[in-house]
Amino acid sequence: MGTYSISRLEQLSGIKAHTIRIWEQRYKIFTPKRSEGNVRSYNDQQLRKLLNIVSLSNTGLKVSELCRLSEKDLAKLLDRQIELSKTENAQFEYFISQLIISGLNYEEADFEKAFSACLLRFGFKNCYVNVIYPMMVRIGLMWGKDEFCPAQEHFLSNLLRQKFCTAIDALPAVSSKKPTWVLFLPEDEFHDLGLLFSSFLLRQHGEHVIYLGSNVPLDSIKDIVKDVQPKHLLLFMVRHSPADEVQDYISQLERNFKDAKIHVAGNAHLAENLKLSKRTDWISDISTFELNYLK
């Protein structure tokens, strides 16, 4: 069982430590264990409850009401969200279910069979948009109910990562004379499937891409911008980070890289609380992004 400090809870949930303390006192969300020095610590179950409340609050439910719900009642709300995540297209839903089952059973052969059939029928782009992305959203909800463990998620994510890399490798190399896109995840961001898909999409349209991957320090971004002078920076911010921290990070990008267009994607609920300049855009959907930049 994991043990987490309140600062780690803040990092993982995007909820300020001060707010967590208020929720403990006002709403009795949970009771942390305390050391002899009165330092709070939290377990996996408490982390899961906090993340579930954050997730469900984004659907319009009040935090005060969610905090007072039992684990059973929270599970019912998550069940409702899982049902809402299901697509009306039976073909997409079939492949989503088959891939999830392969992850639950750690069956690589079943994954290979389902993924290959999906890819053959829909193509890589539609496979990602209509199957892979909705599947990962649903897995997050299942994790909240303790129905999908981290090992299963890592198993499935790494199989997908292999497929994404294979698809990218199959594309022809693009001349560095073309305008350059630098793709990266900021520090403490590790979920790179969306970034890998973006790399595929850009390369498929003949764009020159430099892919840096996950957990990239800002100083490293400064180095590459100085060296190659890219026209575009594209990053994903997936985890639940406090909006003011995200705002500060984007402001740093805008101050340091005045000659590059900045594109941000990821946690859609963050976008509602950000003030972006004309040099920075939030990628809300793939079709709009293609229309604006990949004509």
Descriptive report:
It is built from 13 helices and eight strands. The chain folds into three domains: 3-69, Orthogonal Bundle (Multidrug-efflux Transporter Regulator, Chain: A, Domain 2), CATH 1.10.1660.10; 86-169, Orthogonal Bundle (Methyltransferase, Methionine Synthase (B12-binding Domains), Chain A, domain 1); 180-293, 3-Layer(aba) Sandwich (Rossmann fold). It has helices at 6-13, 17-27, 44-57, 63-67, 71-85, 90-104, 108-144, 150-169, 193-204, 218-228, 243-256, 268-271, 286-293, and strands spanning 3-4, 33-34, 40-43, 180-186, 208-216, 232-237, 261-266, 280-282. It is α/β, with parallel strands linked by helices. The strands form two sheets. The protein has a five-stranded parallel sheet, with helices on both faces. Strands 1-3-2 form a three-stranded antiparallel sheet. Helices cover 59% and strands 13% of the residues. Strand 2 and strand 3 (40-43) form a beta hairpin. Helix 5 (71-85) crosses helix 7. It is globular, with a radius of gyration of 20 Å.
